[in-house]
C-alpha cells in the first residue's frame, strides 16, 4: 500500500504585520520586523508558506520591583538602568524587538510621572535602533496619559502600544492611531474575547495591519495547557478564513519567572538559575509551536536557546 | 468504529439471544457503542470477526512494555489537537545509557534515571524508562548494564542492531517485558524473528522516508508481527515535526494501518535535542529517548508533559486543605481559595509576592475556579464553613478571621454567621493580594 501523505491546505492566512519604521519609512529604526504571513499551522513549511519565523523580542522594565533578585543577578548590572538594559538587548543579546514596560508609572507604587515616562521612551529610542513596543502599567487613567505622550515622542517610529483591554482600549487605540502606531490587543485565555477585542479595535478605526493579539500566555506548570489550546484554536480559526482572527500573536514568556517551581531551592531539581532558564525557554517553545509570532523573552541565555530551537524547527540549521 | 448497521450486516442474524440481547440488531448497537465484546456471539464467522476487529481497532495501536509499576503505555491516540478531546498516553520519557561510556558511567546513568521522580500537583511524575544501548563499546558492558537496568522499577529498552546480541540481552532482561530497538532495512528479517521469538514489541526505523517506513511496517505485519513502534526522522526538528504530523494524520484521519503504531524519537545530548524532546511531547512522539537529562531540564519538561496531557475537561486539582506559605503562626492571616490548580498557583504566587507568612485554605470545588464554582453552587458559605470545620483550621490558626475572594463577597454575612469568624472581603483579582496583606499587617 503506497503511503498517502495527508497534507493540508487552508483558505485563510495570518496577516503580515510590521513593527518599527526605518529611515525610508519615516522612522529611525535600523530594521523593520515583519511577522505573520503564513497560510498554515506553525512551522508547517512542508505544506504551507512560512515567510517569517517567529521573532524574539526582549523586555526592559523600568523598575526592578517585579524582577526576582536571582534573575537580576544572572542578567548583570545593566538591568539596573532601563536604557542600559535596552542597549544590552540590541548589542549583546541580539533581540529582534525591544519591549519597554513602563511598570513604574503604577500609581500605587512608584507613580512615575508622565513626563518621566516620556523622556525614558525618548532616551531608549535614541540609545537603541530596534523596533520598539511599549506597555503601560495597567492602570487605565494613568496609561491614557502615558500612552498619549509615548505616541507623540515615538511619532514616525511605528511603535506598538499595549495593552488594550476590553474595558480600556479607547485611549490606547486613539493614542496609537494619532501617530500611525499599532496596538497590542489583550485577552484573558478566551477565544471569544480575543475575537471581540479585534472587532472592538476595528470598529474604533484601527486598521487590521496595526493589531497584534496577546491571548495571555500562562507559563509551563501554571496553566500552559489553556494558552496552548487557545492559541491552537485561534490559529485554526484564522486559517479557516475568519478575518478577525488573522492578526499575529505576541506572547510574553517572562511569566515563567513568576513560577514558584522555576526558582525554588530544591537540589533534586538542580540549580534554580538554570531551571529558570529552561522554564522560560520551554514556555516560549510551547508558545511558538502553538502559534505565537512574537515571543517576549527576558533572560538572555533563554532567549538564545529559544532562537536556536526555532531555527532547528524551521530547518535552518 | 463501524456503525451499528455495518456491524449488523456481518452478524449471523439468527436472533438466538445467546448474547443476552433479544436480536442481532440490538447486539450490533451495543457493539457500536463498545458496551459489549464480540466474543459474546457464539456464531459469528471468523471472517466477520477479522473484519470487525480490523475496522474496530483504534487508529493507533496500543503497545505496552515493562510491567507492574514500570508499565509503559504507548499510542492509542485519536486526536490531532488536544482541545478536540484529549491526548491519552503521556509521552514516555527514557534516558539512554551507552556502552561507549563504559559500565561505570552506565550504572551511574541508570541510578540517576531512577532518581528522577517527583511529586507534582498530586501526581507522580518521573523518567519512565531506561534505554541500554550498544554502540561502539564492549558488548559485555552492554549486557552487564541490561542486568542492572532490569528490576529497578523502570521499563527497559534494549538498543542494539545486532540480532545475536539482542537475543542475549533479552535473556538477561528478567523480569519484565522490554522494548526492542530496532529493526532497520539492514537487519530486518533477523531482528523481526528475534522479536517473534520472544514476543516483545519491536521498534522499526532507519527508513529514509515515510514511504519506506510504511513498507517496513507492512513487511513486519506479513511476518506475523503486530506489536510495533515506528521511528520516523528526528533531526532536524523540522523533519521531526513534519513526519510526526503526517504519521498522526495518516493514522487518525485516513486510518492508514501501516502507520497506525506508536512513534519513538531517539535524541542526542545537545540543547537542540532538549527542545526536540519538548517537541515530541507536544507533537506526537509516543516515546522520547534522550542521552542526557539535566535535573534543571527534566522537571520543567515533566511539567510541560503534564500540561499537554491534561484532559481539557478535567482540570488539574490540588489537594484541598490548609497550606502554609512562609512560616505562619497561629496569628497569621488566613485566606481561602478553590482547588483549581491554576487558581491555587496564581493566588499562592501573589501571596508569596507579599513576603508575609500566610495560611492559605484550599476548599474543594471539584477543580473549578472561584467564580465558576460560585456560579455553579459548588462554593457556598455552607461548603466553606464545613470545610473549615472538618479541615480543623482553628487548630493551626486562632486569629478567627478569614479573608475571602472579592468575587464572592456576597457570602460574607452567611459565612460569618456559620463560622463565627470575622470575614474580610479581599480583592476581586488575586493580583491585589500583596497590597491588601501589607495594609493588614501594617
Structural class of chain A: alpha/beta
CA-CA gap between termini of chain A: 34 Å
Based on Cα principal axes, name the global outline of chain B: globular
- Mean pLDDT of chain A equals 96
Largest sheet of chain B: 8 strands, parallel
Number of strands of chain A: 10
The largest beta-sheet of chain B arranges its strands as 10-9-8-7-6-3-12-11
User: Roughly how much helix do the residues of chain B carry, as a percent range?
Assistant: 40-55%
Global mean pLDDT of chain B: 93
Task: Summarize the topology.
The complex is a heterodimer of chains A (317) and B (442).
Chain A: E1 17-19, E2 33-35, E3 55-61, H1 69-75, H2 82-91, E4 97-101, H3 114-127, E5 132-135, H4 140-153, E6 160-164, H5 170-178, E7 182-186, H6 191-204, E8 211-214, H7 224-239, E9 250-252, H8 260-263, H9 272-290, E10 294-297, H10 300-313
Parallel strand pairs in A: 3-4, 3-10, 4-5, 5-6, 6-7, 7-8, 9-10
Antiparallel strand pairs in A: 1-2
Helix pairs in contact in A: 2-3, 3-4, 4-5, 7-9, 9-10
Chain B: H1 4-10, H2 24-32, H3 46-56, E1 62-65, E2 72-75, E3 92-98, H4 102-115, E4 117-120, E5 123-126, E6 129-133, H5 139-149, E7 155-159, H6 163-172, E8 179-183, H7 188-198, E9 202-204, H8 210-222, E10 228-230, H9 237-253, E11 264-266, H10 271-282, E12 287-290, H11 295-308, E13 321-325, E14 334-338, H12 341-354, E15 358-363, H13 370-375, H14 381-390, H15 393-396, E16 401-404, H16 412-419, E17 422-425, H17 433-441
Parallel strand pairs in B: 3-6, 3-12, 6-7, 7-8, 8-9, 9-10, 11-12, 14-15, 16-17
Antiparallel strand pairs in B: 1-2, 4-5, 13-15
Helix pairs in contact in B: 1-2, 4-5, 5-6, 6-7, 9-10, 10-11, 12-17, 14-16
Amino acid at each position: 500500500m503506497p503511503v498517502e501523505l495527508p497534507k493540508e491546505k487552508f483558505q485563510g492566512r495570518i496577516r503580515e504585520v510590521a513593527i518599527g519604521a526605518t529611515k525610508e519609512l519615516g522612522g529611525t529604526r535600523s530594521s523593520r520586523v515583519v511577522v505573520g504571513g503564513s497560510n498554515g499551522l506553525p512551522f508547517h513549511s512542508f505544506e504551507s508558506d512560512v515567510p517569517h519565523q517567529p521573532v524574539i523580542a526582549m523586555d526592559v522594565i523600568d523598575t526592578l520591583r517585579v524582577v526576582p533578585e536571582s534573575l537580576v543577578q544572572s542578567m548583570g548590572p545593566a538591568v539596573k538602568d532601563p536604557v542600559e538594559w535596552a542597549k544590552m538587548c540590541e548589542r549583546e543579546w541580539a533581540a529582534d524587538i525591544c519591549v519597554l514596560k513602563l511598570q513604574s508609572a503604577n500609581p500605587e507604587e512608584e507613580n512615575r510621572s508622565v513626563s518621566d515616562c516620556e523622556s525614558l521612551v525618548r532616551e531608549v529610542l535614541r540609545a537603541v535602533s530596534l523596533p520598539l513596543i511599549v506597555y503601560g502599567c495597567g492602570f487605565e487613567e494613568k496609561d491614557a496619559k502615558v500612552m498619549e505622550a509615548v505616541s507623540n515622542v515615538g511619532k514616525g517610529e511605528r511603535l506598538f502600544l499595549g495593552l488594550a483591554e476590553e474595558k480600556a482600549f479607547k485611549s490606547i487605540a486613539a493614542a496609537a492611531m494619532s501617530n500611525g502606531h499599532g496596538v497590542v490587543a489583550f485577552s484573558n485565555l478566551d477565544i471569544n474575547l480575543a475575537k471581540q477585542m479585534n472587532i472592538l479595535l476595528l470598529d474604533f478605526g484601527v486598521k487590521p495591519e496595526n493589531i497584534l493579539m496577546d491571548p495571555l500566555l500562562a507559563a509551563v506548570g501554571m496553566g500552559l495547557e489553556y494558552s496552548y489550546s487557545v492559541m491552537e484554536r485561534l490559529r485554526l480559526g484564522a486559517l479557516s478564513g475568519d478575518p478577525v482572527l488573522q492578526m499575529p500573536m505576541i506572547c510574553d514568556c517572562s511569566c515563567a519567572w513568576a513560577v514558584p517551581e522555576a526558582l525554588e531551592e530544591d537540589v533534586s531539581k538542580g540549580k534554580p538559575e538554570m531551571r529558570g532558564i529552561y522554564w522560560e525557554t520551554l514556555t516560549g517553545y510551547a508558545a511558538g509551536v502553538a502559534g505565537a509570532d512574537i515571543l517576549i523573552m527576558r533572560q538572555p541565555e533563554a532567549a538564545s536557546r529559544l532562537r536556536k530551537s526555532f531555527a532547528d524547527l524551521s530547518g535552518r540549521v | 468504529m463501524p456503525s451499528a448497521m455495518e456491524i449488523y450486516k456481518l452478524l449471523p442474524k439468527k436472533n438466538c439471544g445467546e448474547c443476552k440481547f433479544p436480536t442481532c440488531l440490538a447486539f450490533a448497537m451495543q457493539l457500536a457503542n463498545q458496551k459489549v465484546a464480540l466474543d459474546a456471539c457464539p456464531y459469528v464467522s471468523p471472517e466477520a470477526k477479522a473484519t470487525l476487529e480490523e475496522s474496530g481497532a483504534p487508529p493507533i495501536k496500543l503497545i505496552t512494555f515493562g510491567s507492574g509499576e514500570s508499565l509503559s503505555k504507548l499510542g492509542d491516540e485519536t486526536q490531532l489537537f488536544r482541545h478536540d478531546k484529549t491526548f491519552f498516553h503521556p509521552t514516555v520519557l527514557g534516558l539512554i545509557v551507552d556502552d561507549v561510556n563504559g559500565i561505570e558511567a552506565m550504572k551511574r546513568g541508570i541510578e540517576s534515571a531512577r532518581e528522577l521522580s517527583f511529586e507534582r500537583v498530586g501526581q507522580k511524575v518521573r523518567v519512565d524508562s531506561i534505554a541500554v544501548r550498544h554502540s561502539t563499546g564492549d558488548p559485555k558492558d552492554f549486557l552487564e548494564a541490561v542486568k542492572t537496568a532490569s528490576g529497578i522499577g523502570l521499563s527497559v529498552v534494549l538498543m542494539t542492531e545486532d540480532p545475536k546480541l539482542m537475543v542475549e540481552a533479552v535473556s538477561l532482561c528478567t523480569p519484565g517485558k522490554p522494548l526492542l530497538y530496532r529493526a532497520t532495512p539492514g537487519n530486518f528479517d533477523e531482528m523481526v524473528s528475534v522479536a517473534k521469538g520472544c514476543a516483545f514489541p519491536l521498534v522499526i526505523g532507519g527508513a529514509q522516508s515515510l514511504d519506506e517506513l510504511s513498507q517496513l511496517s507492512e513487511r513486519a505485519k506479513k511476518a506475523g508481527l503486530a506489536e510495533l513502534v515506528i521511528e520516523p526522522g528526528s533531526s532536524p526538528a523540522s523533519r521531526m515535526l513534519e513526519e510526526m504530523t503526517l504519521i498522526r494524520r495518516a493514522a487518525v484521519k485516513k486510518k492508514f494501518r501501516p502507520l497506525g503504531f506508536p512513534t519513538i524519537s531517539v535524541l542526542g545530548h545537545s540543547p537542540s535535542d532538549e527542545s526536540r524532546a519538548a517537541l515530541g511531547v507536544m507533537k506526537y512522539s509516543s516515546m522520547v529517548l534522550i542521552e542526557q537529562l539535566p535535573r534543571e531540564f527534566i522537571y520543567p519538561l515533566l511539567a510541560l508533559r503534564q500540561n499537554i496531557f491534561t484532559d481539557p475537561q478535567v482540570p488539574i486539582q490540588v489537594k484541598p486543605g490548609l497550606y502554609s506559605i512562609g512560616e505562619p503562626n497561629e496569628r497569621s492571616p488566613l485566606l481561602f481559595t478553590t482547588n483549581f490548580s491554576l487558581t491555587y498557583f496564581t493566588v499562592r504566587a501573589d501571596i508569596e509576592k507579599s513576603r508575609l507568612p500566610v495560611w492559605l485554605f484550599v476548599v474543594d470545588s471539584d477543580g473549578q475556579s472561584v467564580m465558576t464554582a460560585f456560579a455553579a453552587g459548588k462554593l457556598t458559605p455552607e461548603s466553606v464553613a464545613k470545610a473549615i470545620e472538618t479541615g480543623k483550621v482553628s487548630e493551626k490558626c486562632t486569629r478567627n478571621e478569614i479573608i475571602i475572594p472579592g468575587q464572592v463577597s456576597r457570602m460574607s454575612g452567611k459565612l460569618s454567621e456559620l463560622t463565627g469568624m470575622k470575614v474580610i472581603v479581599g480583592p476581586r483579582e488575586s493580583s491585589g493580594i500583596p497590597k491588601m496583606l501589607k495594609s493588614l499587617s501594617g
